[in-house]
Amino acid sequence: MKNNPKDKGVSFEHVKGTVDFYPPQSTLVRSLFSSAEKIFKLYGYEEIILPILEERKVFIKSVGETTDIVEKQMFRIEGRDLVLRPEGTAQVVRFFKEKSLHKKKDFYKFFYLGPMFRGERPQKGRLRQFNHLGCEVFGSHSPYIDAEVIKLAFAVLNACGAPRVKLVINSLGCAKDKQRLIEYISAQLAPKEARLCDLCRKRIKTNPLRVLDCKSKSCRDIVAEIPLGKDQLCPDCRNHFEQVLDLLERFSLPYTYDPKMVRGLDYYTHTVFEFISSDLGAQDACGAGGRYNGLVSRMGGPDIPALGFALGLERIMLMLKDQAENAVTDTFVVCTSFAMAGEALKIVDSLRSAGISSDMCFKQKSLKSQLRAAERQNSFYTVLVGEEELKEGCLIIRNMRESTQEKIPVTELVSVISQKINIKK
Fold first, then answer.
1. Range of the domain at 152
2. 55-75 pLDDT per residue, tens
3. What is the CATH number of the domain that holds 45?
4. Where are the alpha helices (DSSP H) in 190-307?
5. Labelling 208: which of 56, 101, 214, 221 has CA 20 to 30 A away?
């Protein structure tokens, strides 16, 4: 195939709002996925892997037709009523209902890790392709599971090393409470409509609760004047929420109660919460969740209570920007001359066969250049293969962190390196 002259000088770049992860970021991504997976499994959650493509109606029915996700942000497949999934909860509910899981047992705990897609205006902490670490629970009204889910989110964040994360929590109450809240907010905003931003003037008629989320100063000033509190909840919902807060205190989990925190998706009822960090700037949320007791029935299934959360992997990475380590190889094998490269490769292979990550320089370079390559690889140990040492049946191991070295028999290399790596880990 001939090159097209028109292609000369063309610059190929990543799609705006997406990220190419490469070392050390790719190493951190895998580490965060692994850390999250371990915590989810520790809490008894089972992994669910769902398709990236989903029918658009799944999100219209669940998230809400007047939400930003549905109105502006879904990537739709041209000519088809299919979209790239913008969030995970609706998908898991669709799966739960489609497979009639409620007929098999009465309680489920799922977790998922993977990419989501939204057509947002890219900025720090907001991407068009991003990853969620999420979970969903089906089958319990108990405040104990609310508390567990929140504690689980904290545990995942801690395992990922996310610093200085704060919990903000509220309750929207049951469906009746939420409807009364919507009507109350509408009535409070109506006399002040002229002072609202253009978008919020539309929201009064379509989704009044979204006004509480607006970042416009004029809207925030108006919202600050609206009295809200637990007395907007019915007795049962208030009791449920008080129990959740009591359990958080028993777990020594600090929280801030904010009656104006409502979340932007239509399916939420009862407990809602966000995790925020001052390290993230204006877009300070790194995760959020809550109950959606009516969503399964809303999507054609039985009336089953449910709740969950999602944490943003890229948001967590922003908090860890100074903690990303270079890719680590346990050992790097160097040789005194290129003539010894064959012996070096045999040693690399023996280490890899023992499960020890190992590499070498595959270019004809001096010993000094090979040692610099080992440093760039951030290897724990360097194994030196020299002609004189091999005649003695020995190798030299160098500790790259402590700048110490020792000579050992070739036959003991794997066991010695294994022991050193295990001690380090």
1. 25-174+234-319
2. 999 999 988 877 778 888 899
3. 3.30.930.10
4. 198-206, 217-224, 235-250, 295-298
5. 56
